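Priority: low. Protein: ABC transporter permease. Input follows.
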Amino acid sequence: MNVPFLIAKRYFFSRKKRNIISIISNIAMIGVAVGSMALIVVLSVFNGLEDLIREIYSSFDPNLKITAMEGKSFETDTEFMNRIRKMPGVAVVSEVIEDNALLRYNDRQMVVKMKGVSENFFRQNDIDSSVVEGHSQLILNDKYYALVGRGVQYQLSIRPGNQFVPMQFLYPRNVKYNPLNPEGAFNNLSIAPGGIFAIERQYDDAYVFVPLNFAEELLEYGRRRTSLEVKVEPNYEIAQVQKDLKKLLGAGFKVQNSDEQHTSLLRAVKVEKLFVFITFAFILFIASLNIFFSLSMLVIDKKKDIAILASMGATATTIRNIFLLEGALVAFIGAAYGLSFGMLLCNLQQSLGLVSMGIASSVVDPYPVKMEVDDFVLTGVAIIVVTLLVSIRPALKAASMSVTDQL
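Result:
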């Protein structure tokens, strides 16, 4: 029989007239409940935002991206490409030339990210399904077309159906500048706007897709490429194919998965989540100080009970554990309510979308939430640590009381 727990439970569930100790204990329990509920909800929101970022980028980014370790481009040839295509697990390899270029349309101009892609590019992503106007074909009837982001379209007033006004791309040539002929310092190629895509503002406001040969001619790249984008076959692990490609290509190349292509952004979310956890854990600690006060007052109120228990043979450890368990009951019952309500709120947000992000350009309207077991475990650990910190001093004080002074 666990005597300390039975006595602690008796003190907690006592049906005597409510006094200030009971009121403070209830306040402490409510504080722990609210703190743990807020902690679970906020951590779940960060999990949802992290998944939302991955979802947004998944329609644009490849499973694996091969780039040069140094410089912004690298040489390719038929043998090099065949070695990658024959690698087990590689389904599609798209060649990419990407760089900033000046885009002119009528009397307007802006700097855009021009991305020249091979014909199989749309086989490994969903960009073609994001076309809101025109078509996604970059080569049609032996004619080159560009796929333009909606933000770029708004900036330049581009009309995809207008065949009489082409888009002009300008890119600086690698020649000595001649002040008598400034236009000779730039390559200038025209292309018709074929379609408009809308994925996410970051891409819509900057990107224009063009055929690989068009970009190759404009930038004078020859067989150089800025990256190769790889789609992994469904029955293969991306991590294993990434490891095999790194081994095949050697130290001169980077092979990045989707998360590694946006390491800084995802790391920022994780760091912000960590600091939010620390902040809310501190708030939880402040709320739990009521446990300290209620236990301190309970020790004073139960001096005679402590003396009687000690005279009956109860050790200092037994008396200490009674008050530690009393604090644990207050904290854990409050935490149970808080975690339950937090889980309920997250489920309601997932199913009903109670809180909106309030951003017109967002790809989702309600705040995304995702509950993870790790968050519940971390919250539980935080509650245990906080409970121990606020309960240990009153418990030690009770254990050190003199029996003769109280009888």
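The longest helix spans residues 20-58. Residues 64-257 form one domain.
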